[in-house]
Amino acid sequence: MTGSEQVDGKNTSVLQVGTAEQKVVWNVDPESGRVLRASYDGMTQTGPAKMVETFSEWKTNDGITLPSHVSRAADGKEMMSIDVSSFKINAPVDPKIFDKPAAAPSQ
Q: What does pTM read for this prediction?
């Protein structure tokens, strides 16, 4: 742990995690243990950038709590956001979706 910072008005613990190739800074809510923000050096279409992902609007389903909103910014400019309206944990999957498609007819 390397200190504390505010994320969306909430005090967070700052943790540095990663490997020799990639370092990531997590801002963790000390009350819930949720990662509210992740910062790292990344690559965009225009080159290297400081990336920041923010996780919010947490929802619980089947005992699992996940963020339903994720935003990503590069050098302070929002690049994308994801909104999850619902999710299922270990939902049944029809095994037929893994069947190999029939060969295309010869011409």
A: 0.79
Question: How many whole angstroms separate alpha carbon 51 and alpha carbon 43?
Answer: 8
How far lies 16's CA from each of 6, 11, 25, 27, 88, in Å? 16, 16, 5, 9, 31
* Spatial strand order in the sheet of 64-74: 3-7, 10-18, 23-28, 35-44, 47-61, 64-74, 77-83
8 Å CB contact between 16 and 42 = no
Contact of 8 with 28, CB cutoff 8 Å: no
- Cα separation values, 6 from 9, 12, 21, Å: 6, 6, 27
Beta-ladder partners of 43: 48
Tens of pLDDT, residue by residue over 74-101, are 999 999 999 999 888 888 999 999 999 8
